[in-house]
Amino acid sequence: MESKKIKVVELFAGVGGFRLGLEKTKNYDVVWSNQWEPSTKIQHASMVYEANFGPENHSNKDIAQVSISEIPDHDLLVGGFPCQDYSVATTLHNSKGLIGKKGVLWWSIHKILSEKKNKPKYLFLENVDRLLKSPSSQRGRDFSVMLKSLDDLGYAVEWRVINAAEYGMPQRRRRIFFLGYHKSTEIYKKMKQSEKADWLLEKGTIANAFPVTIENIKNANSFKLDGDLVEITENFNKGGKLSPFLNTGLLINGKIYTMKTVPNYDGSKTVLRDVLQNGEVTDDFFIDADDLPKWEYLKGSKKEIRKTASDFEYSYSEGSMIFPDALDNASRTIITGEGGKSASRFKHVVNTKKGLRRLTPVELERLNMFPDNHTKLDGITDTKRAFFMGNALVVGVIEKIGKVLNNQINSKNE
Predict the structure, then answer these.
(1) Smaller CB count within 10 Å for the chain: N or C?
(2) Active-site residue, 371 included
(3) Using CA of residue 37, residue 41, residue 44, residue 50, what is the dihedral sign?
(4) What is the pTM assigned to this prediction?
């Protein structure tokens, strides 16, 4: 029997990393996408998205201004949403609405899930791993607000912090990925009936895509998410030094199960050397001998007295970075400021036969497992292309989870 196509809506689409990963499994059909960058006049990321996937069913306007009726019904909602302050200021008595801070994009997701008559059955979201422990005054509060709001809307959630390099991918990029299952789905029912540790270690979608060692489970912990969203905002883990959320966990029926897991992978590994372009690199990527001392200073360790604008003196110290970057290991995390000629502590530098140089846009695309020149477009600078990759995700992670999720959804019971 042919499996049913899974209709997808992609929010905060960037240059389309989620879509690239899901479309490797031929069973996902993106029926609508949205990309809007509030701080720029020219919508470069949206232009790149349209150049690759076509303008049809793609929206380039502020998601907060998009009416729910414009968003088609879908089975799966995906997106890498910005890490912000998710606190709830107050709830409205006469309305289902939540008043979080204006412009906080989590509430745009929440609005779709709460107002759509036919809710998406599945969610697949991504964020920085800091989400598990922010803000510093109430460790884990933001994540608990998010989980509680999904719980209220009838979803169970499983999450894992995944470092792509620990599963053979070319970049040490650590992100939290989480999947939501509506209570009307078979996966929800299976999760409810299973031993929670078994789900997180072997049976769950993420455990199948990214295996973990079954021994040495650390700090397994469970607790109830008490109170409504306002109470959680005000009181969750007040004064706690550590977040109660570990790198792996699930939420179902208001209860959290969480544990620290260790990756189990012994397959092939792609390292920085494997992504390098050989003859095609132009001279402007090479570091001038005159600039080298500046790079060495920024990459080196320091202990020095610095002054603030108001002449306040303070001592500053930092350790050294590997310079140039090691070619026999996965790369460090790409950041948005990776492009441009100026010397920087955080940009990658590689040593080649022709000398020391920065990474090219194609190499940065390869570190995120994008196709070569995915972001190449007239009017888009190399610096902008680097910025896109600093914001993107590792496509291979999406592909692996997407494949298992498709199998789960289309197993005989679903």
Answers:
(1) N
(2) no
(3) positive
(4) 0.94
